[in-house]
Amino acid sequence: MLDIKNVEKTFNPGTINEKKALCDISLHLDKGDFVTVIGGNGAGKSTMLNMVAGVYPVDHGRVVIDGIDVTRLPEYKRAKYLGRVFQDPMTGTAADMQIEENLALAARRGKRRTLRPGITAKERAEYRELLKILGLGLENRLTAKVGLLSGGQRQALTLLMATLMSPKVLLLDEHTAALDPKTAKKVLEITDEIVARNNLTTLMITHNMHDAIQYGNRLIMMHEGRIVVDVRGEEKKQLTIEQLLQLFEQSSGSKFGSDKAILSK
Predict the structure, then answer these.
(1) Which domain holds residue 248?
(2) Considering its fold, how many domains does the chain have in total?
């Protein structure tokens, strides 16, 4: 479903601020793979997600989504294949619009606009059923302005919107980092349920080592623009945080450098 092939990216080449962000990265995801991504600051995690999303062009290599080479497609054309949830809960929704209006926008993404009524009774019933999945009572607040929701409610709604049209690939860029621990746990549980229900191919960046091990069927660790650890299946299920740190040190030749990730274990 996703192939990243020998991708390289350097920022500010030829200057004193030159930074090699991705160094010949290759990654293959089958349909339904749920991959957690962890690494220190500057490891290349967000750069990799932004490269898949088409936020900026790659210097070398290819990005293929479901057999379609999207390497040269701009971000807006690539968006129809992707769902994305950002770290900031305010980013993925329109605060001044109602919950049902936000869902309607997500449902019409990439489709031809018409002069038909904005939201039909049938759609409203469908949205109500979808919102029940979240278990947050939002199905009874369809006409509430999204700006009135809490950060956790808003992020859960963003997740629902990002997956409404079953994207080829779902990108989660530390989507619980701005939430308190209790709310983050709830949003992660919702994430896991939605991904499993729709068999979505997913890349999830996290700074929490426990979450990286607990969720998904595969885990990769990045260091200085490279993938240095790649574990999956039973090996991943049996991992402890101490073993994961040991794997990282053996593969990279250095200590894991993210205090935030180590403290979150």
Answers:
(1) 32-55+80-258
(2) 1
